[in-house]
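Notebook entry, structure prediction.
Reason for the run: the old model in the group folder had no record of what sequence produced it. Starting over properly, with the input documented here first.
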Amino acid sequence: MSTKNALKKTAKKAVAPDEGGVLTDHVVDQLEQLILGGRYAPGEKLREQSLAEELGVSRGPLREAIRTLEGRRLLERTPRAGVQVVGVSLADLEQILITREALEGMAARQAAESMTVAEVNALRQTVSGLQSRPQGAPGAVFNSGPDNDFHRLIARGSRNRWLENLLVKDVYSLLRLYRMQAARRPDVTHSLAEHHAIIDHIHARDGEGAESAMRAHLRRSRARMLKAASG
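New structure, fully documented this time:
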């Protein structure tokens, strides 16, 4: 089954009546996956009626979901075009990556203070997954892989739900959107030693060292991404 067909099949699953915003949250998740999975291209207009039919919901929850994703910058509303998928410009990308460095540096510092031994071991296993991961098909760039898991685990390990939400729901989603529109796979070949260094600082409960190592890692990653994007 193709990725697009799988996304359509997922979107058409029956949804329960809205109770305390549960339906709206469900529609947000479904619509986000359609966007990040490439079902709707950057700049493409979303038509409410056909989208509501595809998701099997009324326009009310759909409009709430659209407003949520507008707030997270995955969608934008313009006077003539209506609601459309955001295109991530080079200037946007640079600002997102600068923000990511600051937030993930803070997450690494807090993770060094909060993560359990079992969670640190999970980080090491994730890096081992990066080392053994095959290159995969080009479509793999659209999916969450071990590298995302590594960074998500650290965000979760910070025990700071505000920080985790900013990273997972905003920063990571926008980076995934950029990689989808640019058809770029995350380059982890330069990152393995840096990942190990970050883990070593977290394991040693060295918050300052963990933040410094994470920020240095992301600065180098930003330089590579911007060079590739402008080349």
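Summary: The longest strand covers residues 75-78.
The old model has been moved to the deprecated folder.
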